[in-house]
Each structure stands twice: as structure tokens, then as C-alpha cells.
Here is the input.
Amino acid sequence: GVRVTLIANTLRTPYSGMLPGLVAGHYTWDETHVDLQPLCKFGNHRVIHDECVGIDYENKRILLKSGRPSVKFDVASVDVGITPSAGEVDGADAHTVPVKPIGGFNARWEALMTRVIEHGVECQVCVVGGGAGGAELALSMRCRMRRELAKANLDENLVKFTLITRGEIMPTHAKSVRKTFLGVFAEHGVDVVENDGVMRAENGKLILQSGRAIESNETIWCTQAGAAKWLRDNTPLVLDDKGFIAVNPTLESTSHKNIFAAGDVANVLKHPRPKAGVFAVRQGPPLEKNLRRALLGEALVDFTPQSVFLGLITTGDKSAVLSYGKMSFGGLGPVGEKLWRWKDKIDRKWMKMYADLPDMMGGKKEDEASKIALAAGPETMAALRAVPMRCGGCGAKVGATVLSRVMKRLEPIPTNPNVEIGIDQPDDAAVVSTPPGMVSIQTVDYFRSFVDDPYIFGQVAAVHALGDCWAMGADPHAALAIASVPYGLEAQVEETLYQMMAGACSVLREAGCALAGGHSCEGAEL
Ligand SMILES: Cc1cc2nc3c(=O)[nH]c(=O)nc-3n(C[C@H](O)[C@H](O)[C@H](O)COP(=O)(O)OP(=O)(O)OC[C@H]3O[C@@H](n4cnc5c(N)ncnc54)[C@H](O)[C@@H]3O)c2cc1C
Here is the structure.
């Protein structure tokens, strides 16, 4: 089969469509972030929480920041998005806050609100970048700040907001969108500076290309995307002039076979499009199909992205503007409010798909579902659909009640007089004394099941482990068992674990060796 591994530098990834709503206080952190761990567990994918810092194409390995061993691949897809390109402006790294990663930005934003409310002092916030993201962000921050100030009985106008952009605002949308937003900014008292980019950032102020200086106590950087430096420094991939990965319409690198890229980090040379989530999302299904085709050695298929896209751009409060090609409407007022409610519904539905994972099976035939779930039988399939994802926070341990029931069923558990603290007095570790004049021999064995009968497998595993002791001329006194059983209904997990441990105990008992403790978990296989 194929092992899919996701390497991600964050395990809670934001849904950008809802980020302005998070900043405005309409949504919580959880409502706007996808938890990758249960998602990957559901798809039976391995997750590595680390940061990719390079690709060794010759040896087909992904290099990781933490220094742990690199990860082997046959086919890889690089989907790392953008990095804020503040670095090219003098002082921006030191004196501005990039909007991505959102965790860092949000913490700064919350701290700013607390500071303003605690001290009640006037302050000026500048957002640099007049695309949809920057515009939404400026309006959302203003909306939230005013609400928090009002709650604290402070002047709602204490904090002033300014949007600064190199060209005109909303450059990738119709002219009418710009006009509507200029009206919204004017109505909300947000200053807009167009056609005057930031040349230098200093402590407390920004110097623009025209030479104009603007006071700024907090500057948020939300400009055109830049690409990660490691792509240039540490991969052999051909990049475009901005450092993004050049790909064919198949989403495969133009220079390296079996390396794919999608989303903001990719530049489909034949179909250039703005960096936007709507395009990234649409590339998902063709990417998945071509990854499969590459693995099966089949011909790849071209993908042509849509040329116009629907944008629902929010105005901070609960209203929005619809932008589609040359058409736009909405803004402040009843139509805009209706559009916001529509967007809210779409966004919540989208996020529900990632939280309510069994629903992802909806409409699928059973034989299309995970082979592992199917192998566990129709009862498990039903349970998987009915219950939320199993908890992975505790390392997918077998539940305590299941374990204690299994232990009860195993009684009498084999013992040995040298075990001071064992399974009969459960603690974090076992205590075993070594008789005077003797030494302690330790060994560990672990392997996958090659038989279907868990009882036989338990016996084989115990004999195999004891064999190493006997080979050393040692008398086995105590054993720790590490047992992994396939995911399933509690009853099935319990039965499999019981059968396997019963087999092991039968061998240990005969050898006079205590079962002193161990660890059990649920996994993909026995
Ligand atoms: C405030 C804001 C609002 C936006 N609103 C919209 C909108 O309403 N509609 C829209 O279409 N677009 C919107 N966008 C744009 C949208 O966010 C992006 O186009 C979209 O997220 C791109 O998806 P992606 O998968 O390519 O990258 P990302 O969503 O950025 O995902 C990349 C992932 O890779 C991880 N990563 C990065 N580097 C590494 C590494 N080296 N190793 C491992 N993992 C790594 C990141 O943590 C992240 O989880 C908005 C952007 C902003 C800033």
C-alpha cells in the first residue's frame, strides 16, 4: 500500500476565509482552525510535526528543521503557502508584525487590545497591503477594537486605523469593489493611503516612498506574498522570478519528476492566477489524482483553473461585498448583511466537514471507505460514522476501563517474588529487585502480527522475547508488554487485547515470569 505522511509546522491550521471574523471577534480560535491530527488519523495518514527545510532530490528525502532523520518519499507535494515578504523593506522585520503565521499575529493583536484598554491611551495602527486580506483585516481590527473599548467604557475612537498600499486597493478585483471599499473605509473613519508604498519602517513610524512619514504604534504587514527562502537555498527545483515553484498544468514541477506543488507556493506557468485560497482549494482534487497516477506510473492529467472566482469580502462588522469578475454588490446595509450571513453559512459548513469527520463518508459506498475500517466490520463502520474521532491526545492509548476489564479477565496474572511493585499495585513503573550476586539482563522485542489469531500471536511474541533471555542463560523474572491493537469498537479492542495478552500470559506463567506492566495502544494493525 501507500503510506501518506503529512509534514506540518503547525497542527492547527487556519481557514483564512474566517480569519477576519476571528480578528473581529465573530468566531473563536477553534471555529477557525482545522485540527490536522484527527483529520490525518481519519485518513490513516502519518503526521510529522516539523518544518521542511529542504529537499534532497537525489536520495528522495525531505529534510527537517528539528534535525530528526529526514523523511523518505517516492512522490512529494510541496504545499507550504507563502511567507510574508516584509524582509525586502528596511526595518520591516524589526518594526512590523506579519499577518502569517496567524498565531503570532493574533497574540500580538490580543496584547495590543489589552494594553490599550488597560492604559486608555490613544494609538495608531497601520495595515500595510491593500489586497482583500489587508482591507478585511483593517476593518475587522477596527470593529473589534471599538467594541472592546465600548465594553470598557472608553472612547471608541481611541485607536485610529490606516491602510497603506503601494498601488490601489483591491487590485485583483473589479473597479467597483475598490469604490465600494473606499466608501466603507470613509464611513468607518479608516484612512486609506494609495499609490505610496512603505519604504522604511522605524520605531513608531513608517516612511513612505513619497517621503511622507506616518505615525504607527503597531504595523501589520499584509502585502503581496513572498516565497520561503529554503526553496531557493535548499532544493534543486526551478522557481519563478519571485521564488515560487514553477509547475506544469499537472501541478508537477517543471524541472523535477514526482515533485508536485499546489496552492500559493505554486506558479502554474501556463495558467497564472492570483494567490488565493479559492484556487488552492480547487487544486486539491486534481493534485490527489495526479499523485495517485504518479505512484501507479500512469500519465498525468492537466488541470485548468477557473478564470473568475467568487469573492465574499467582509467589512469588519457583519456585512460583506460580493465580487465576481466584473460584477460586485453589497457593502454596508441590508444586502451586505445578507451576504455576510450567506458567507457565514458557507464557512461554517466548510469547517464542519473537518470537525465532523464521519460525515465525510456521506454519499460514499462502503467499498470506497478506508480498508482498515472495512476490515474491522460493519459494526465498526457504523460506530465510526456515529461517533466523533477517537481521542489522540493521550497517544491513542487503549481506554482505562477497557484495560482494567482485560486485566481482570487475565487473572491470575503471572507473578514472580522478585517483583516488588507490579501489576497488582499499578504505578508509573514496575520495581524489580535483583537477587544478591546476580546481574540483570534486559531485552526488548517488537514485531507486527503475521497471524490472524491474537492468542497465538501473543504466545509467539512471548516465546520470542523469552528466547532472548534463555539464549543469554538467564531466568526470566519480569516482562513488560507493549501491545498494539487495531482501532475498533471498545468491545472488539477489549477482545483482541484480551486474546493476545492471554496467549502471552500462558507462556509467561509457564516460565515463572511475572507480567509486571506495559503499555497498550490502538493502531492501524496488530
Ligand atoms: C487575512 C487573510 C484573509 C484571506 N482570506 C481569503 C479568502 O477569503 N478567500 C481566499 O480565497 N483567500 C483568502 N486568503 C488567501 C489564502 O489564505 C491563501 O491563498 C491560502 O491559504 C493558500 O493556501 P495554501 O494551502 O497554499 O497555503 P496555506 O494556507 O498558507 O497553508 C500552508 C501550510 O503549510 C505550513 N507550512 C509552511 N511552511 C512549512 C514548512 N516549511 N514545513 C511544514 N509546513 C509548512 C503552514 O503552517 C500552513 O499550515 C486570505 C489571506 C489572508 C492573509
Summary: Residues 334-355 form the longest helix (22 residues).
